[in-house]
Amino acid sequence: MELVFHDVICSLTASLDFVGISDIHHGKRVALMAATMAKKLQWDEDTQLNMLYAGMLHDCGISSTEDHAHLVSELEWDDVNLHCELGQRYLVNCPLFSKYALWILHHHTHWNELEILDLPEQDKLAANLIFLVDRVDFLQAECAVVDKNVNNILLNESSIMTKIKTLRGTFFAPVLVDAFLELGQQESFWLSMDYSYIDASVRAYESLSKRKIANFPTLLSIATLFSKVIDAKSPHTKEHSKYVAQLARFLAQKMGFSEEEQQHIELAGMLHDLGKLRVPDYILNKSTVLTQTEYAYIRRHSFDTMQILKTVFPNTKIAEWASHHHENLTGTGYPFHLKGSELDLGSRIMTVADVFQALVQKRPYRDALQLPAIKSIMNKMIINGELDQNVVSVLEQHYEYCYALAQSPESLKIERV
Ligand SMILES: [Fe+2]
Ligand SMILES: [Fe+2]
Ligand SMILES: [Fe+2]
Fold first, then answer.
1. Is the entire prediction scored with pTM above 0.85?
2. CA of 169 to the centre of ligand 1 (A)
3. Which of 18, 183, 236, 273 matches a 20 to 30 Å C-alpha distance to 62?
């Protein structure tokens, strides 16, 4: 599988923009402004692209809808650095993005503090550029709210520029503010971020990017980064995605999947709940029965997963396997209501892995369950015709191992065929 880096990043980071619920595309607008500014500053093409990708990823430390609300409602807030530090920790472990980690760590650091740090000048400017355009986007959102008109950006550009000018030398590097003030004169700078054009504006950078991703460890490191963002949505789902991925891979291996198929199901497991980034936190943490409105958010999450993953991993089963994890053989699952014959083995494995891991883990409405209780629940699901008996049989043959695997895969070596 050889993937186009630009497509992978554009598609996957769309899920980060979900966190805004109704305020979407923050990451894309920051990315586009950062790349446009880099060009204006005559930074080379590779750096322009890096600013684009770092811009898309800059708020990966924010999974919570509550935290996201700060981004678009306040210039600064208490604990602003928490999401910078978390984002840095995610990125530093992902080889393709590790060069952005320092920028993300400092993407809310004031220039008058940043300029005296012992860091390379270009890194300081890159971090501060993300800070500047990030706050421009905050001011943009503020204007839109005040005027209740999303198309009014050309009426507000001068007030945004005036505000940024007052922060020259304190929040932002003078060289960056000067470039921004020049660029901001162009209507096209603002209009390229219009809701209708933002995707096309970002996609246009594809021609600059020659990067490809061709090996599994690199893909897995990207999927792992996103799994951390997903699982950080709720304290109850800590590492759920990683454990589901490991379980699904183990079951697939035992059921005769090829090495490549095992890799695909592991990626699907890592990303199966990507659509949850669109679900408000309080719903995921609620301990009582969900209202119809709340359940409507839940019912769409695996469909959102499908939409993103089919563009990230075309011509594979990954999107299908990931997005079928709430289907069941009786056709009463969601979002596709597929029945037995329509669900292939990979989809069935994913459902069993998701159900099993969820039972092993504490949920807001119940404690973590022990093996006897889990066995009885899963057996009932087989009797009801929901779960695949063959997959559960394989799980049963390795119950103790899978139970441990669903809680701390690092402590176990996955058995290879
Ligand atoms: Fe931020
Ligand atoms: Fe941001
Ligand atoms: Fe799910």
1. yes
2. 20
3. 183
